[in-house]
Amino acid sequence: MALRPECAVLLTGTPVAPPGGPDDGILRQHIDSDHPEVADAFIAHWKPDIVVWTWGGMRPNIVLAAKASGAHMILVDAAQDGFDRRRNRWLPEVPRRLLAQFDVVMARSQPAFARLVQLGRPITEIELASPLRPFGHTLPAHDSDVAEVTEALRGRPTWLAAHVHADEVATVLAAHRQALKVAHRLLLILLVSDPETVPRVTNVAASRGLNATLWSDGTFPDDHAQVLVADAVDELGLWLRVSPVAFLGGSLGPETEDTDPYTAAAHGTAIVYGPYVPTHSDAYKRLLTAGGARIINDASSLGLAVSQMVAPDRAAQMAMAGWDVLTEGAHSLDRIVSRIQNQLDRIAKEHA
Questions:
Q1: SS3 298
Q2: Residue 140, φ and ψ in degrees, nearest 5
Q3: Do domains 10-132+329-351 and 143-326 have the same CATH topology?
Q4: Nearest CA to 198 among 171, 228, 222?
Q5: pTM as predicted
Q6: pLDDT value at position 94?
C-alpha cells in the first residue's frame, strides 16, 4: 500500500483479524461459504483486479467466479499438502481445473512443484520460490532518544527484559544479580508489561541490593544504576535499538501471553526466552534452530545465558542468525510484489 496508496487491499480467508489492527488501511471480510451464489455475489461486490491466493485449499466457486470476472489470478506459496482435501481425492479433476485458472503459480518447495505437475500444471508454468514466512518489523524510535541513551550508557554492557509480567520480575532480577558477578557494569533495562508492576520491580530490586532507576522520572542511568525500569510499552523500539540481548517476557509461565520474537530479531537483537511460547512456538523454534535464540528455564539459566550472550561477538553472531531467518522468504515476497506491480501498471495503461 505504501507503493500504491490509491490501491485498495482486501484480505480474506480467515475469520480472525490478522496483526495490524483496523487502522492499517486493509479491508477485511471473511467468506463464510463457497456456494455459487455467495461466491458470485462476493466477487461482484468487490470487483478485484488481482487475486492472490496462498498455499492451496482453494474454494472452487470463488476461484471460478474471480477468473470469470477478469481478475488476474496468482497462486503463491503453493504447498505439497495444499490440494489434499477429501473432495480433491474423490474428484481429481477439480484441482486440475482450478490450477488452470491461475495466470501465475509459485510453489514453495520441490515436493510442492512435483505435486502441481502431478495435478496437471505444465512444468513451464510453475515457478519455484522460497516459502513465505512471517517476518518482524522495526518499531519507531526517535533518533535523538537513541543517541542520548547510547551516550548515557557509554558502552556499558546492556541487556533488555521486555514485556516482563509480574510473576517474572523476581526471576529476571535474580538472573541479573547472577550475571553481575561476571559483568560488573552490566545494566538491565526492564520493560514491564503493565505499569502497575513498577512498584513491585523497585521493591524486589531493593530487596536484592540492586540500584534501580525509573525512566519515567526523566533521569538517565548513571554508572551506579544497575537496573533501568521502563513502563512505556510504546518505547520498545528504543530499548531494542540499544540492547544487543533481549529476554522476551511472558515465556516463563503458562498463565501469561508470550511475545513475538520476530520484532526483536528485526532490530538485530539476540533473543533469550522461557519454555512457554504457545502463541509463537514456530517462530521461536526457527530462531532457536538457526542459532538466533536461546531457551532458558529459570533464573540461574537466564543469568548464565545473559552473561555469555552480552559478549559483542556472541551477540552479533546470534543477531545475524536471527536476521537470516527473517529474510528467508524476502526474495519470494519481492517477486510477488513485482508481479502485482507489473499487472497494476498494465491495468493503469488500459484505463488511461
A1: coil
A2: -70, 150
A3: yes
A4: 228
A5: 0.78
A6: 82
pLDDT digits (tens, 9 = 90+) for 71-112: 999 999 999 888 876 555 545 678 889 999 999 999 999 999
Would you kindly state where each structural domain of the chain is located, as residue ranges? 10-132+329-351, 143-326
State the pLDDT at residue 16.
45
- Predicted pLDDT of residue 14: 54
Coil, strand or helix: which one is 137? coil
The residues, ordered by sequence, that sit 6+ positions from 225 with a Cβ below 8 Å of its Cβ are 187, 211, 212, 213
Residues 310-333 have a mean pLDDT of: 92
DSSP string, 268-282: T-EEEE-S--STTHH
Q: What is the pLDDT of residue 17?
A: 47
Neighbours of 50 (CB within 10 A): 17
The answer for residues whose C-beta is within 8 angstroms of residue 173's C-beta and 6 or more apart is: 188, 190, 201, 204, 205, 208, 210, 227
Phi, psi of 68 (to 5 degrees): -65, -25
Distance CA 97, CA 152 (A): 64
Task: Report the top-level CATH class of 143-326.
Answer: alpha beta
d(C-alpha 159, C-alpha 244), whole Å: 6
pLDDT of residue 291: 97
Dist. CA 326–CA 79, nearest whole Å: 20
One-letter amino acid for residue 226 of the chain: Q
- The three three-digit cell numbers of residue 336, written as one number: 510477488
The CATH architecture annotation of domain 10-132+329-351 reads 3-Layer(aba) Sandwich (3.40)
Helical residues (DSSP H) of the chain, grouped into ranges: 36-46, 60-68, 86-90, 93-99, 110-118, 143-153, 169-180, 198-207, 236-242, 261-266, 281-290, 299-309, 312-326, 330-351
Residues of the chain above pLDDT 90, percent: 73
> In this structure, are residues 126 and 277 in contact, taking their beta carbons and an 8 Å threshold?
no
